[in-house]
Amino acid sequence: MKFIKRISKNKFGQKFLGFLVFIVTNFTYKSISWKELKKPNSYHYKKKEPVIFCTWHNRLYCGPYLLPTKKLEINALQSSHSDGMMTDILFKLINMKIIYGSSKKKGVSAFIKMIKAIENGESIAITPDGPKGPKEIVKDGIIKLAQTTGAPIVPLFWKVKNHKLLNSWDNFIIPFPFSKGVYIFGEPIHVKRKVTAKKLFQIKNSIQNEFDKLTKEVENYNFNKKVK
């Protein structure tokens, strides 16, 4: 553990660890037998228009691999901390761009970059409860981004049968190789540009409820159910 912390302090070490992360996560993802639970009535990305993809922080392990990176240019909002820098190579190897920032550091700069990316026809991938929680609680950032740009919010959640939950603030999910997995994309959620503060609060609650419903749907999936 001390060795990992030491080499993660320099750029070469970060890239090396990042490549190892890619090797492990890519192998795990490809070894899982995936099933999409429900296809939305409107796959917005088929039109190749920008969207704001959202998944909980604890589902980052497989989340990026499930995104349509071959159809869309997608930017991942990434922490500028060394832990975030380590995943740079992972995102690049799966054809994703990176925007650095967080809610506390370089937040305004990152928000402006995300707006410009969407204006250029590119999509955004973000964890609405990241980087430090509260767990599975939608923050204002994605709503403001959707309101400012007109790009819809598209939630994505997944579950695997065999996995380990870390003792972290978000109970990060580590899937086991060769397991069974399910995932679900939600319908695009649009936020009007001109709405009252009261209406915006209602929209936030509505988005939270939709995210909770989809999360519950994957969590309640019965892998042992026999298909007739």
Head-to-tail CA distance between termini = 48 Å
- For the CA atoms, what is the radius of gyration? 17 Å
Structural class based on helices, strands and sheet pairing: alpha/beta
Number of E-state strands: 9
Strand count, sense and closure of the main sheet?
A: 7 strands, mixed
User: What's the shape?
Assistant: globular
What is the H/E order? Answer: HHEEHEHHEHEHEEEEH
Strand order of the largest sheet: 1-9-6-2-5-3-4
**The CATH topology:** Glycerol-3-phosphate (1)-acyltransferase
Summarize the structure.
This protein is α/β, with parallel strands linked by helices. 38% of the residues lie in helices and 18% in strands.
Structure notes:
With 228 residues, the protein is α/β, with parallel strands linked by helices. It has a single domain, classed as Glycerol-3-phosphate (1)-acyltransferase (3-Layer(aba) Sandwich), CATH 3.40.1130. It is built from 8 helices and 9 strands. The protein is globular.
Main traits of this protein?
228 residues; alpha/beta; Glycerol-3-phosphate (1)-acyltransferase; seven-stranded mixed sheet; two-stranded antiparallel ribbon; 8 helices
Give the topology, please.
Blueprint: H1 2-7, H2 11-31, E1 33-36, E2 52-54, H3 63-66, E3 74-78, H4 82-85, H5 88-93, E4 96-100, H6 107-119, E5 123-126, H7 140-149, E6 153-160, E7 163-165, E8 173-175, E9 180-185, H8 197-219
Parallel strand pairs: 1-9, 2-5, 2-6, 3-4, 3-5
Antiparallel strand pairs: 6-9, 7-8
Helix pairs in contact: 6-7
